[in-house]
Amino acid sequence: MDKDHYLERLVRKLETNSPLQSEERDQLLRLPLVLKQFEAGHDIVSEGERTKNCCLVAEGLVCRYKIVGDGQRQILSLHLPGDIPDIHSLLIEQMDHNLGTLTAATVGFIPHEAVRILTRSYYRIAEAFWRETLVEAAIYREWMVGIGRRSAPSRIAHLFCEFITKMTAIGLSDGKTCELPLTQPEIADALGLSTVHMNKKLREIRQAGLVRVRSNKLTILDWKGLCQLAEFDPDYLHLREASSKK
Question: How many domains, in total, are found in the chain?
C-alpha cells in the first residue's frame, strides 16, 4: 500500500474524535511520510532518545512501555493503525518511555517541522491533535483505575471492550469480531497481572460464554455481560459515534 492509504488512516482516526473540513483533510494527506518496516518486539523510539519525527502507526500493533528494575515490563498503552502515539514529542524533546512493536508493523515517520507548519496554518488540525492527547489521557486514567481497583476478570473484560470498540471506530471490526494479535504474557503486562493468573481468569471469562479468543481473533459472544463484568462505559473514549453498540 502507498503512503496515501496510511495518511487516510490518520484522517479517519482523527475524525473519530474531531470534525475536519475537506481542505484540512487534503492538507493532512499531503504530509511527508517515510515508511519503515519493523519486526515484532522491536523498539521504534527508546526511552531517553530525542527524535525529530512523529510516528504514525500504519500497520500492526504498537505499545508504549517501561521496564522496571527487576526487568519486568509494564505496557502503558496500545496503539492501532492511524494512531500517532508520540505526538507529544513535538513539545517534549526526550522520550520518557519506550515505543515498540507487539507485531510486525509498518510505521510512517512525519517530520516535526511539517506537523508544526500544518498546525500553525490550520487551527482545527491543531485542535484535533490536541484532542487526541486529551483522549489518551482519559484512557490512561481508565487504565489506572483498572490496575488499581478492578478485579483481574474485570480488567481483562475491560481491555477486550476497549480494544474492539476502538477497532470498530477505525473500520477494522464489525463490532463483534476483531483481530487480537496479543499473547497472554502481553495482555498480562498491560494489566499488571502474572501470566499464570491472567490465563486462569481468561479461562473463566471464556467458560462464562462472554468471549471466544482463538487464533489471534477476539469474538464477543455476550456484549452486555462483558460490559457488566468490565464496568465498561465508552464515554471516556470520546468517540463521535456510538461505535460500541452491538
Answer: 2
* Residues 90 and 198 grouped into a single domain: no
* pTM beyond cutoff 0.85: yes
158 and 130 both lie in a single domain: no
User: Does 245 have pLDDT greater than 50?
Assistant: no
Query: Residue 105's domain spans which residues?
Result: 3-134
Residue 141 lies in a domain: no
Count Cα neighbours of 217 within 13 Å in the Cβ-side half-sphere.
10
If pLDDT is split at 50, 70 and 90, which confidence band does 240 have?
confident
73 and 119 belong to one structural domain: yes
Distance CA 7, CA 4 (A): 5
Distance from C-alpha of 151 to C-alpha of 191, rounded to nearest angstrom: 10
Q: What is the mean pLDDT of the chain?
A: 95
**Cα–Cα distance measured from residue 240 to residue 54, given in angstroms and rounded to the nearest whole number:** 25
In angstroms, the Cα distances linking 33 to 4, 70, 133, 137 are 9, 38, 21, 26
Q: Residue 101's domain is classified under what CATH number?
A: 2.60.120.10
Pairing of β 105-111 and β 73-79: unpaired
Within 10 Å of residue 230's Cβ, how many Cβ atoms? 22
CA distance 206 to 18: 36
Give the Å distances, CA to CA, from 181 to 178, 186, 198, 207, 213. 9, 10, 16, 21, 10
Q: Is residue 245 a part of any domain in this protein?
A: no
Grid cell 498546525 in the structure block, residue: 119
Distance between CA 159 and CA 149 in Å, rounded? Answer: 14
Domain final position from 103, 134, 165: 134
What is the CA angle 5-32-115, rounded to 5? 110
